[in-house]
């Protein structure tokens, strides 16, 4: 079958966005080096034609640039557009209207001559949107093509590996980036739940753990993840995994954590080339352990899916935690099935219950008189002893317990904790 074409006869073909671990040219100095030719449409293009374009390209075309007189004026995200057009009566209302109705009017637009360093700063300023959607590349204001945020991160990683004498400066900047990416989730948590706390302690300046929290009109979604490694390698893995989660949420919504784990698994395996490379040799073996939860505010139920991380609930008056273990299947690794389906647990939660998730950096820390792991028993004991106090104080007590146990031993891993009290009433959120 011939490839579909635009009305002017030009091809709709675009780069297949299977970004394996990049095989880079010798040098990437500017944004133009990352530019990929991509189709563009005019502002008077109808939404029905945009639907045809996305349908013809299947999953290959992530975003579509909108131009006027050769200059970009916006960017249409495939998942957001299809989600909007699939709503009841939207096809009837919007089919014949201009595509600008669902266009991002403020995408990241950069000149082809912008340096990679300046481009990375710009990408950080724009946040996760630029990593997920990519950026528009222009020359003298005219549209050239699109750049991919994840590929940019890969290029930045390759450049930093060659700049050993600037490593500490790079690590400190990476810490700023990582903390900036986590800030939105921390702010959303604080504005949504009356009594909740997050602790994020990288072993080094940057770390391989990350968290995600988003509020919705009918509940909230939370994620805690522990990526391969710590330090700089772990930090880059968190960017890849976090961006994959953001894309999965945009495509599937937040209400099925198991489906989201599967989507992130496929994305990470593809991005890192961990299916099978040349001669059936995987290019790497990196991934993450994770716990994803969805809380339905009306039903007061938690939906949980975990990959080597568990969910722990302490009901009012209970002496012991109710623990839900994650599946013994990591996300994105070579040995993780591409089509693996994580099971989902739906749990009715009593009001005022404590919900707790931790990465293994807390439980596995070696110390104490016998130089053994801290273990779940000591962690749960500390929580039960402070159960009547605010969750921030509970987390502080856990940090003190960890420090007392560790004593002179080296910190083994990054530590991330999430603790929330599911109150009868919580703050309103109109997101």
UniProtKB/TrEMBL annotation:
GO terms for molecular function: phosphatase activity. Residues 189-422 form the PPM-type phosphatase domain. Keywords: Hydrolase. It comes from the Bacteria. SMART domains: PP2C_SIG. This is PPM-type phosphatase domain-containing protein.
């Amino acid at each position: 079958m011939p490839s579909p074409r635009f009305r002017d006869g030009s091809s709709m073909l675009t780069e297949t966005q299977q970004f394996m671990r990049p095989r880079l040219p010798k040098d990437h100095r500017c944004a133009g080096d990352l530019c990929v030719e991509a189709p563009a449409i005019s502002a008077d293009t109808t939404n029905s034609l945009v639907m045809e374009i996305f349908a013809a390209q299947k999953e290959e075309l992530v975003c579509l640039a909108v131009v006027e007189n050769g200059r970009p004026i916006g960017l249409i995200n495939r998942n957001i557009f299809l989600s909007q057009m699939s709503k009841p009566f939207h096809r009837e209302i919007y089919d014949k209207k201009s595509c600008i109705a669902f266009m991002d009017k403020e995408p990241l637009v950069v000149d082809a001559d912008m340096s990679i360093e300046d481009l990375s700063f710009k990408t950080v300023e724009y946040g996760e949107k630029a990593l997920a959607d990519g950026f528009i590349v222009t020359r003298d204001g005219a549209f050239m093509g699109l750049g991919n945020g994840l590929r940019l991160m890969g290029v930045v990683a390759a450049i930093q590996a060659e700049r050993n004498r600037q490593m500490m400066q790079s690590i400190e900047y990476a810490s700023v980036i990582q903390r900036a990416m986590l800030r939105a989730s921390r702010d959303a948590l604080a504005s949504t739940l009356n009594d909740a706390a997050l602790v994020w302690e990288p072993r080094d300046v940057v770390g391989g753990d990350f968290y995600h929290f988003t509020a919705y009109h009918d509940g909230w979604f939370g994620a805690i993840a522990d990526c391969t490694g710590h330090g700089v390698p772990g930090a880059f893995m968190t960017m890849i995994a976090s961006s994959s989660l953001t894309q999965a949420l945009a495509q599937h919504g937040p209400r099925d954590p198991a489906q989201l784990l599967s989507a992130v698994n496929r994305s990470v395996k593809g991005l890192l080339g961990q299916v099978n490379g040349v001669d059936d040799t995987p290019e790497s073996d990196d991934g993450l352990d994770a716990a994803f939860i969805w809380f339905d505010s009306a039903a007061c139920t938690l939906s949980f899916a975990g990959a080597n991380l568990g969910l722990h609930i302490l009901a009012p008056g209970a002496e012991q935690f109710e623990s839900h273990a994650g599946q013994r299947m990591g996300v994105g690794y070579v040995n993780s099935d591409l089509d693996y389906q994580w099971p989902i647990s739906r749990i009715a939660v009593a009001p005022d219950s404590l919900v707790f998730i931790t990465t293994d950096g807390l439980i596995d820390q070696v110390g104490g008189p016998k130089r053994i792991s801290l273990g779940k028993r000591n962690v749960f004991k500390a929580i039960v002893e402070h159960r009547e106090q605010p969750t921030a104080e509970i987390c502080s007590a856990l940090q003190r317990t960890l420090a007392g146990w560790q004593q002179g031993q080296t910190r083994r891993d990054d530590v991330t904790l999430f603790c929330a009290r599911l109150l009868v009433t919580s703050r309103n959120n109109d997101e």
